[in-house]
Amino acid sequence: MDWRNVTAGDLIDALREVDWSSPPRPLSEFFSRFTVPRSYVKWNSRLKCNLYYYRTNYFIMIVLILGMGFLRRPLAIVAALLTALTVAFLNDSFAGTFSEKVTRTVRQFSPHLAAKMRPPLTPVIRGRPSTKRAIHICGQPRGVFVMIFSLVSFILWYISCGLLTLAWALAIGLLGTVLHASFRTPNLKARLNTFREEFRAVWHNYSELYL
Length: 211
Prior knowledge:
Strand content: under 5%
Structural class: mainly alpha
Order of helices and strands: HHHHHHHEEEEHHH
Strand order of the largest sheet: 1-2
Number of helices: 10
Oligomer: single chain
Shape: globular
């Protein structure tokens, strides 16, 4: 896969649709080999490849930096967790898994309420969905959950007086992510993983067209 032809929008869509449960890469691999890219084109390609391949490591690193910045402010730690959860809701796989587990837990206490939390059915015409299936969480559109959690986390940030600390923590986390992705040399595993994800995407599109 030629990462030079991948736009920022394509990368964001891939991160949104990718399986969220993939474990982080080992630290021995994460801090293995660093080199300076020889050109802007190579740097751009390396940055996109590493952002996709080490996505879980970067997410954990930013969450840890946020947690370390608010060790003396428990309310701010809750706000950081809600913010991380809000970002995780943007991933299709995480949103679907979260909704399924919550619904399954509620079903044990109230089957009637759990039935209302099921996502609406997508109309099917000639064996194929008539429209692209929208993501729902506990029976509600994903955007509703994102807005609610964003609002609550912002209020907690404001109450805990941690907005400035949040800005510094995010800046440090994002800077560390960009620096690592820029200088970490893509290894063979990253390239093989890219080809595997590309094959899965092609097979998924093939299945939708002919199954």
